[in-house]
Amino acid sequence: MDTGIRTDRIEKVREIVSGLLERIPDSEFRNEGYVHMFGVAQACVLLAMIREEDVELAACAGYLHDIATYMTGDSIEHARRGAEMAAGILQETGLFEDKEIEKICSAIRCHSDKKMTHGPLEEILKDADVMQHCLYDPGYVSKKEKDRYKKLRKELGIKK
Length: 160
Ligand SMILES: [Fe+2]
Description:
By secondary structure, the protein is mostly helical. Helices cover 70% and strands 0% of the residues. It has one domain (8-155): Hypothetical protein af1432 (Orthogonal Bundle). Bound molecules: fe (ii) ion (FE2).
């Protein structure tokens, strides 16, 4: 079935992120990187489909969102640093317009501000980040993710 969604750019970004994660020497941290970044990208796709937003940009934001944490092993200011790194990576592909890069990087830049509400793509990334954490460990929801998780469950039709 042709969904009409362009996937070549998603594939390119996934390939680049995969190559970067491959360089992480610690196998546990490397695996965590794959599980989290790839999981968030897939949650981004699902939420973008449900909310009728740009699936391709959402997927790319998901794949890149924690790139600063996984590349440097340091999560301090990782959203801002990650947005800068992502802009460089996306520009280098030559596949994205400046406007698209700005949208993806804005989502990455804002994704740690879970208590605030931003635009549709920013919110998709924040919710996808929460969703991956909660799907990975359904037995635990952190305090800072509780409210979003509750709203998400409602949106997804999870009754209890
Ligand atoms: Fe994350």
